[in-house]
Amino acid sequence: MDHVRSLDASARDEQTAGPAGPAPATAGWHTEISGEHVHRPDARDAFPTAWRRLDDTRFQVRARWPRRHRFFTEVAGRFQDPLLIPEILRQGSMLLAHAAFAVPIGDRFVMQRIRYSAAPAGLVLDRSSEDAVADFTCGDVRRRGRRLAGMRCAMVLRRQGRVVATADGRLDCVTDRAYRRLRGERLSLTGCSVPLLPALPPGAVGRRDTAAVVLAPSPRPGAWQLRVNTAHPTLFRRPNDHVPGFVLLEAARQAATAFSLFPGLMVVTDMDMVFARYAELDSPCWIEADPLPKDDPDPATVQVRGLQDDAEVFSCTVTAAASGPVDR
């Protein structure tokens, strides 16, 4: 899901309206889901497997909960990668926008804010292959004419009858024509070559392999340069004209992990990210972390910001928990 604060002047004419489309369906699950519905062309990165409508505003989405994945790898040796939660929110929201709210395939999605909160006990990996079930509530639906212009999606994620996490986000829907008008000359950077910076040691940011590291070393304490690896099949699922929002989520998670005294033993339980503008490919983006409160020598909560060309790209509050014993 892409990200930016404002789209174009026509957005000011949007008015709040209730969801339209077909009347509430029966309880049957819809399983005809393509990569286009979730904007993930590689099936290994597409997690929703079915969806159903409960009423005008409530839906359920079934999603894979993989024990092994090329990017969403286990954390601290026994926890599911918590960033799978905002990814299921992102993919589920786009699926519902297309399938339930009739947004045409090819339109763009712009995320304004995304946040989640998880219980460590629910993230403990097990041998079960059972899917997760996400209860979605879609509110604050806005339309431009008959077109969906945006909505807020709140999600409660359950697995094996237990609540794993809650999450919510605000997305705007943009026609391809409006997006091209918005981005203008920046579209010429689509698929451009970006120099791959050296990486922090994977263990310092909670990763196992260098390819997944999105931070480069910096002489400034608590600051790193964003490392853009356009060849990574999950982080850059297709050629893009800007840095995808999910890369910035990962950068915030890695920055908070690097800030910890025990990076290999931390699991990020809460994130709240607000996007301000696009992160461009042709200019350095700096990731800065500060403890909350400011004087905490080993903070559980860290404020992370992305800065590019003296402007804020995003701000994110990240909370982590030690991976000690958890009650099941």
UniProtKB/TrEMBL annotation:
Coiled-coil positions: none
Stretches assigned to the A-factor biosynthesis hotdog domain: 38-171, 204-319
Bias type Basic and acidic residues, positions: 1-15
Pfam families named in the record: AfsA (PF03756)
Taxonomy, superkingdom: Bacteria
Region named Disordered: 1-28
GO molecular function: transferase activity
InterPro entries: AfsA-like (IPR047757), AfsA_hotdog_dom (IPR005509)
Biased composition regions of type Low complexity, renumbered to the chain: 16-28
UniProt protein name: ScbA protein
Organism this protein belongs to: Streptomyces ferrugineus
